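2024-03-11 09:14:02 INFO receiving multi-entity request
2024-03-11 09:14:02 INFO entity count = two
2024-03-11 09:14:03 INFO echoing inputs for audit
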Amino acid sequence: MSRLSRCLRTEVRWDESGDDERPYRASVGGENWSLRLNDFPAQPLYTLFVGAKEIGHVEDWPAAWKRPD
Amino acid sequence: MRPLLVLLLFASAAHADAWDGARAACGPELFSATARKQLNYVIRKHYQKEEAKIPALNRGWSRQGLGPEQRARRAFAFRRALRLECRRMMREPAEVKLVCQRDRKKYGDPNGPTFEWLVRHAKETLKTDDLNAIYENIVVTAEKSNRLVNVGVWFLSWKEWALNGFSGEVKEK
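2024-03-11 09:21:47 INFO inference complete, emitting structure
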């Protein structure tokens, strides 16, 4: 299974970051995850980063992820 | 039975509040009671299919004798209307609100770049004041750059399918 697939299946509780470009962040197993918002619909809605590394695009919110309250 | 009804009413009210927040961030033009809600992945496929019509439309406008500025304005109007149509189809109010906030900050408009923003941006990118070159760039640039992104997405989605079964939602880096 690829890293992105594993990330999409991981239970994550996201927090708001206050940054319009990267509106969500989370701490997962000691790593800092963030979601960048792209130019939707011309581009996929989100791009997932773990630390500084771009992991891949996310089109629709995975069932295992929880949005901020 | 009664607790379930109360829960459903509460969930419905929370959802309505979320849409009110999105409406406040985006303005009324983004909302339609009749828009069919879809997954983002489906919405973007629709966008790509429709945007791919711009080169043929542009050739038709050229045959009609339209100049670069008129063709650029038509391409811009087509793309913006398509962008709004697609955003009306989004299911999740929190995501609608986010894209509007992003666009307002980046472009000064919650529904994407204005024509004037695109002209300024093309001037800076091309480092020219040649308006005809700038207008031609507006017709084709977004189509070209997004095509590159999307070719990558399709290729890597098929790779994903080959490895894990198709989800149609991701691009692996």
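2024-03-11 09:21:48 INFO post-check: The CA atoms of residues 47 and 124 of chain B lie 27 Å apart.
2024-03-11 09:21:48 INFO post-check: The longest strand of chain B covers residues 170-172.
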